[in-house]
Write a structure and sequence with these properties.
Keywords: Membrane, Transmembrane, Transmembrane helix. InterPro entries: DUF2798. By secondary structure, this protein is mainly alpha-helical. The protein has one domain. Helix content is about 75%, strand content about 0%. It is built from four helices and no strands. It is globular.
């Protein structure tokens, strides 16, 4: 996976883009807003969400998740274990943070359900985690890793597109 700061930036950009597209559509659908919001409003919501998620991933959640994932007791020479631990830590951190973003957005637009802010936050966390975790592990994560190795790693090492990169930094 990423071995330089530049590669880490591109990997985070790709992962955030994939997750934000699906999570935005999921949240718009579950809140019944797909037919009621204009395309312009949905696009604005997506852009604001993407910027927030990317800054969080790059500056806060990503570094903390990596620190936690690599401090866990498992065999770090096994690539699958590294990917799973990093993915789990990232999803947990991003769901906790982005659910706060969603709560703030709902509060701003007066669309919170009855109950306390804490109850609404926990409800958002559970709903978002239930969708984000399998999405990350089964769809977006593998797709982004494939595209990253195929296009970013292949070009950043001076190789033309289509060449396989053997050394991806993790064994």
């Amino acid at each position: 996976m990423p071995t330089t700061k530049k590669e880490n930036f591109y990997f985070g950009l790709m992962m955030c883009l994939g997750m934000v597209v699906f999570m935005t559509l999921y949240n718009l659908y579950t809140n019944g807003l797909i037919g009621t919001m204009s395309l312009k409003a949905m696009l604005l919501q997506f852009i604001l969400c993407f910027i927030t998620a990317f800054v969080l991933e790059l500056c806060i959640v990503g570094p903390v998740a990596k620190k936690i994932a690599f401090s866990l007791p498992y065999d770090k020479s096994k690539r699958l274990f590294v990917i799973l631990s990093l993915s789990c830590c990232m999803v947990i951190g991003m769901v906790l943070c982005m659910s706060l973003y969603g709560l703030g957005t709902a509060y701003f637009f007066n669309s919170l359900s009855e109950g306390s802010l804490f109850k609404n936050y926990l409800s958002l966390v559970v709903k978002n985690f239930a969708f984000a975790f399998p999405l990350q592990l089964c769809i977006v994560g593998p797709l982004v890793r494939y595209l990253f190795v195929r296009f970013v790693k292949g070009t950043s090492m001076g190789m033309p597109l289509g060449k396989n990169v053997v050394n991806d930094g993790i064994r």
